[in-house]
Write a structure and sequence with these properties.
Number of domains: 2
CATH superfamily of the largest domain: P-loop containing nucleotide triphosphate hydrolases
CATH class of the largest domain: Alpha Beta
Number of strands: 5
Strand order of the largest sheet: 2-3-4-1-5
Structural class: alpha/beta
CATH topology of the largest domain: Rossmann fold
Shape: globular
Number of helices: 12
Strand content: 5-15%
Helix content: 40-55%
């Protein structure tokens, strides 16, 4: 079964449960939190918050547009903190308070937890009571690609959704540029770091320009409002950027696997095995792990800022240097 078919199958199960009034209060969504698991969560939230009378989620009402763009006031997000890369107890307490409030617009509130495996023990314990006895009309979605590392007390209180593993890399418009960056970025030369940052920044700018042009053309045909146009463009750009950074992250994880002597059959970028072997030979475990963290932090920072991306990228690639 393809990824798309499997995803639709799980979404169909959710819709049937919702119509029958048999929804669980919390779902552990096992899959890529930046890919198929996030798609599932956005579809589930859109279904519950959609304002259409039939054919939910309609994909065109304000709720359906704002959910994937991260703008819906009744969808509350929590994710690992920038410095510690864990979900701490203070962030969890804020998350719980948000869920206990009345819904702003819809009939439902959605709690969306990204990388739920990074809950620290104190945060997990603070969350257990809400997980057992959530507020009315509240659904919690815990996204993870590492459920085996989570506390059993959390897992046991959720209904599990097992989504397929990420598919092997497909060729996208941005693939040649990203592959070029990946194959030249292993260096301690500041000029190389700057060049990689500029190439990636140019790619993101070109992608944004293309998406905006496509949405403007679509708006002329559908007479969409400017707010709707901006939200659609932002949602699409977010997905493309996530895919680009996922590819960058897979490369660094491939290197980490090779440095640790793992099975080469597990590699995502297996078509570049010779380049990966050459780069891995220059790394130790600590440096390979630091490079993984640098990609994660670049992605997180870009998702949170509205200012130009180039300084974030330059800083991130500098952190990936060998020295």
């Amino acid at each position: 079964m393809s990824t798309a078919d499997s995803l639709e199958q799980w979404l169909s199960i959710f819709r049937r449960s919702a119509k029958a009034g048999r929804l669980a209060h919390a779902y552990l969504v096992c899959g890529n939190p930046e890919g198929v698991a996030r798609t599932y969560a956005d579809q589930v939230a859109s279904y519950l918050l959609c304002t259409a009378t039939e054919g939910r989620p309609c994909g065109i009402c304000k709720s359906c547009i704002r959910v994937p763009a991260g703008r819906h006031p009744d969808v509350f997000h929590i994710e690992p903190e920038k410095k510690s890369r864990v979900i701490g107890v203070e962030a969890m307490r804020t998350f719980i308070r948000n869920l206990q409030q009345s819904a702003y617009e819809g009939d439902w509130k959605i709690g969306l937890m990204l990388h739920a495996d990074r809950l620290n023990e104190n945060a997990a314990n603070a969350f257990l009571k809400t997980l057992e006895e959530p507020p009315p009309r509240t659904l919690m979605l815990l996204l993870t690609d590492s459920p085996q590392t989570m506390l059993r007390t959390v897992i046991s209180r959720c209904q599990r959704v097992n989504l397929p593993e990420p598919e092997r890399k497909k060729t996208e418009d941005w693939t040649p540029v990203v592959d070029g960056i990946l194959q030249t970025s292993l260096s301690n030369d500041p000029l190389v770091h700057a060049a990689c940052a500029h190439r990636l920044n140019d790619l993101l700018d070109e992608t944004k320009t293309r998406i905006l042009a496509e949405e403007k053309k679509r708006a002329k045909d559908t007479e969409a409002e400017e707010e709707v146009l901006d939200a659609r463009a932002e949602a699409r750009l977010k997905k493309v950027r996530a895919a680009i950074f996922q590819s960058l992250l897979h490369w660094q994880r491939d290197l980490l696997l090779l440095v640790n002597g793992c099975d080469e059959g597990l590699l995502f970028h297996a078509e570049h095995i010779e380049v990966l072997r050459g780069q891995a030979a220059q790394l130790d475990v600590a440096t390979a792990f630091r490079r993984v963290r640098a990609i994660q932090e670049m992605d997180t920072r870009l998702a949170r800022i509205s200012r130009p991306a180039l300084p974030v990228l330059e800083s991130g690639f500098a952190r990936m240097g060998l020295s």
